Every structure is written in C-alpha cells, then in structure tokens.
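Hey L., structure's done. Input below.
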Amino acid sequence: MKLWANAWIILVSSVALVAQTPSRIAGKPDFNGIWQANNTANWDLQTHGARPMVGQPGLTPGSMVLAAPVVGLGSVGWVPGGQGVVEGEEIPYLPWAAARKKENQERWMDRDPEIKCFQPGVPRAMYMPYPFQIIQSATKVNMVFEFANAQRTIHLNKMEEYPNVLYMGYSVGHWEGDTLVVNVSDFTDATWFDRSGNFHSDALKVVERYTPMGKDVIRYEATIEDPQVFSRPWKISMPLYRRLEPNAQLTDFRCVEMVEETMYGHLRKDQLVKHWEGNTMNVDVTRKIPPGEAVHERYISGNPPAK
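Output:
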C-alpha cells in the first residue's frame, strides 16, 4: 500500500508540474498520455511458436505437453506464438551466456524476476502487457508503469552522473529532430528482457529512440549493448500505441502483495498452500527451501544449527 501511495503522490505531483509548465519543448512531439505495446515480446523477443509455459516431453518424440505446475490451466497454460521484434532475429550471446539463456528458459518458473514482482527494467517495461503513462515537460519525461509501481525519469537537462545502480536504469535524453533519444545506464543485473530467459549483466547500456509515426503511434527502438553477455550490440523495435478510451488511466496492480506466498511461503511454520482440489485433478504442493536459506529455515523453526 505504501509503495502505491508513493507512486500516486509522484504521479499527481508530476501532473501538477505539467499543468504549471509548458507540456513540451515548442515544436517537439507531445507524448503525454497512456501508452501500451501490442505484441508478444514480453513472452519472447524472437519469433516463436506456441509452447507450454512449463513443459515436459509428450507421448511422441519431440512433442511437449503441459507439466504438472500448469497442467490445470489447459489452453491458458500455453505461450502464444508471435513475431519477433529483434532486428535480424539473432540475439548474439557469447557461448557461456547462450547456455545460461537456455537454462533460464527451462527454469523460467523459478527464475523470471517478473514472477517475483521485481521492477522490470528497460527496455522490458516498455512492452509488458500493461499500460504506462508518459508525463512530459520541457526538462523531464516521467514514465509511470502499472506493473510493480515502476517509474523512471528521463532527464533532458544536464545532470550529475548517478552514483548507484537501478532496476530501471538511469536515463538521460535529448532531441534529434522529432526523435527523443535516451541513453540508459547504471543497471542492476536482476532483470530480464522477457519470459524466455533472455538476460543481461550490470554492464548493460541501452539507447532508446522514440519517433512519432502519427498522433497516436510511437516507433520505439532500443539498441542493447553488454560486452559481458553479447558479442555485439543488437536492436529491437516496435510500435507503441496511445490508449484512446475516454477514461484511459492506470489502475492499481499491487503485485508485491500478490507474490508474498510465492516468495516467502516456504518460511511459514505451518504451510498455507498445501493442496488444491478441482473437478478433474488434485494438486499437492511440496515446497523446497531455496539454496542458501537452509540455515535461516532452521533458525525460524527453532532448531538452529550446532556451532
């Protein structure tokens, strides 16, 4: 509740700032409004066919079926196929990183930071299946995202270098004609690009370009550079669409509270989620203690390890 309240205060303050100052630099595009991508990039940046969210081998060679964690979801448990947004379709991983990406995808349900409600980072925040709001002034462009109360500020005026790292990175922008160009740096390595295990290190740098394609469409491009993970820079691009409903607005999505049992349920002395019973199947839940937390588990259970 407190996180959302803080985000709402920032949003209201930003709206007030826009009301008191010119909404944008004269002659430049007006990006104020609610925007959203309409693609499958958050599932997979690359072109992909339908596949199980969590799968296991089927009856015939090479076939896949839903695995136990999602079998009850039926058709909803499948990733929708979609066209890629990566230029040239290739993500140029270094050999060790390609192996890590494959492992991430296979263990998606344990590893994707989105599942745990981490702030999504850049560029992922721009194409998640949730709306976001742009609030533009002459010196700042604020973005408020529905998912995880995430926010970012693009500084159009001169700023000191940022002294730390951020989930959403540190953004400095400038205009090149009608295109807003943004350099984003100072990332943590705790975010992914999508639900397919595409990842980066804390050496990530992103250059974004926002170019109007019309009054209600922006061409979004992001060039990604991370020499620790990729052999060369690579680029994604897609349109972002303005939400045109008369009452378009961000709504409350308190995913922090929603994932408490997912993240911390194993710490309960008496497990809350143990069993689910439906019309066609029963599901029993046995929790595993994440690596590194075994000692902590013994302390809270009243049986600390012997010295």
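The chain has two domains: 2-47+82-242, 264-300. Helices lie at 2-20, 95-106, 108-111, 255-258, 260-264, 294-300.

-- N.
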